[in-house]
Design brief:
The protein has about 600 residues and is of the alpha+beta class. About 60% of the residues lie in helices and about 10% in strands. A hairpin with a 5-residue loop joins strand 8 (about 235) and strand 9. Bound molecules: flavin-adenine dinucleotide (FAD). Belongs to the acyl-CoA dehydrogenase family.
Length: about 600
Amino acid sequence: MTIFKAPVRDIDFVLNEVLDYQNHYKTISAGAEATPDMVEAITAEAAKFAEEVLAPLNKVGDEEGCTWNDSEVTTPTGFKEAYQMWVDGGWQGLSHPTEYGGQGLPMSLGLIKSELIGTANWSWGMYPGLSLGAMNTVYVHGTEEQKNQYMPKLCEGTWTGTMCLTEAHCGSDLGQMKSKAELNEDGSYRLTGSKIFISAGEHDLTENIIHIVLARTPGAPEGTKGISLFIVPKVNVNADGTLGERNNVKCGSIEHKMGIHGNSTCVINFDEATGYLLGKENEGLNAMFTFMNTARIGTAIQGLAASELAYQNALPYAMDRYSMRSLSGTKNPDKPGDAIIHHPDVRRMLLTAKAFAEGGRAMIYDAAKYSDHMVQADTQAERDAAENELGFLTPILKAFLTETGLESASNAMQVFGGHGYIKEHGMEQIYRDARISTLYEGTTGIQAMDLIGRKVVLDGFKLYGGFCKKLYKFGFKNLIGGKRRGYSAKLIGYTLAWNWHTVKMVARASKNRDAVGAASYDFLMYSGYLSMAYYWARMAEVAATKLASGEGDPAFYQAKLETAEFYFSRLLPRAKAHGGSMGSSTDSVMGMDLERFTVR
Ligand SMILES: Cc1cc2nc3c(=O)[nH]c(=O)nc-3n(C[C@H](O)[C@H](O)[C@H](O)COP(=O)(O)OP(=O)(O)OC[C@H]3O[C@@H](n4cnc5c(N)ncnc54)[C@H](O)[C@@H]3O)c2cc1C
């Protein structure tokens, strides 16, 4: 079984010492409640719940999985009881308005619970996690009546929500969607169609499930411009909020899959089910982006969680497994061999996971400030600006952190040697569970196209320019006055190179549009390594300052500096390879005729 210890000190370091969250909370209305004591108490309670309740269920969930019987789904042993504790603890509405029974705390504070829960037991965490997306979507796009009808129960956690986009013939290309929604005389709609791969689509944790569903109305325009969004409850809800009759929504089956066995992945069939338009007709995909962006940041956390859990479990094994002698001389003379942590290659794997986990945490928690502003800024202009900034970062966070999370999980398995491949230690579960993260919520390829196409080129390089400016500003400031000037120099150098590669790529794309697609993955990975370098440079500055002042635990800050050094020396240079690849000819990807792909 895997072990999990909530990285409370690391979270505190990022929030308070690097990202200055206390000052950030002064800039939003909900921030007044988020005092240091409150943040500490929430972290401690979430840590306890994650360590004591959810972590022990991680293996149970994997081994038992969910079971389907005539449209009902039973979750693994212990999931239901844990969920009831979650509801009793008032966790679901932590960051949602008090008028709907939430606690009105900042969105960013919700990330702490999401990280801790997700690392302890990703499958379980998906039930309340998907529900958060449904809550945000109803809150942003719902009418007052819809909010009053659905938000209190969703905030309470006694109902959960789902995201119903995918159909058998289309996941990335939602323009091909076929589910239809026909208007009833009373203003509601009849929804007919089949959605597949719906996470938490059916389960036994709550009395109702609110499906947020994309479908087409009759005569709607072709493609993504003709898609609308609907609320479709599993059990109809009366005007007074009480439960009515069962709706015509049924779970047709659940998937048997590689990982996340504790979370139900469902076929959901709508057979003239009653639904209600959410937002405007034919503007459903835009509205659904509220859900997808929540889910994408959630999936970025899955990447961080995989790195963290992989590292935490590989470390004690590396300390306690003895194999051959260290190259630089015997380290454990009383043992038949030295602990494998003395071998550079094992350290490389451990440090890679550690650097990705801690760097990823800083990236996500900083981006979360934008989500606070999106919800709580004073003016619409400020809210829009925050949404745009977060929109730029989202594909980087989602794709880069899940790719690196998967690498960490693979490395941590490798640290165990053959013992990583068998079930006993739980290392293969980390990998299997993490594997989905680069696929759902937009594959890495789709995120890469979104970043380079919509967020960079179509945006006219505004957000990209602003992002580069932030890196240059930090770099030049610390090149002169910083404690780790070498990192600042590297940050500036890599940003300059990124700009150069981008210009060249755009020039190539003016002659051949495939140049963008051919470069997109490398462009995204370069963006990821560069962003993480910015946060490692920031963390190193803080750690060096604290060490110089003699404040706090020197071993903690020293470890930060050493991990930063590893990141800048061993991981950041990978960006050069991505730059090189990005800069090479489009023909090297697109030149081969389809006929010549054939195996002979
Ligand atoms: C366990 C699990 C849980 C899920 N949960 C949900 C859920 O809760 N709700 C929901 O609606 N869906 C869910 N999904 C569906 C998931 O989001 C989709 O599977 C995913 O978006 C990919 O869609 P697809 O499978 O149709 O692949 P496709 O869209 O067919 O893509 C196949 C490949 O082609 C690539 N590709 C496609 N188009 C392009 C392009 N234009 N440029 C470059 N590359 C391209 C993709 O990157 C991918 O590599 C889940 C899936 C799984 C397996």
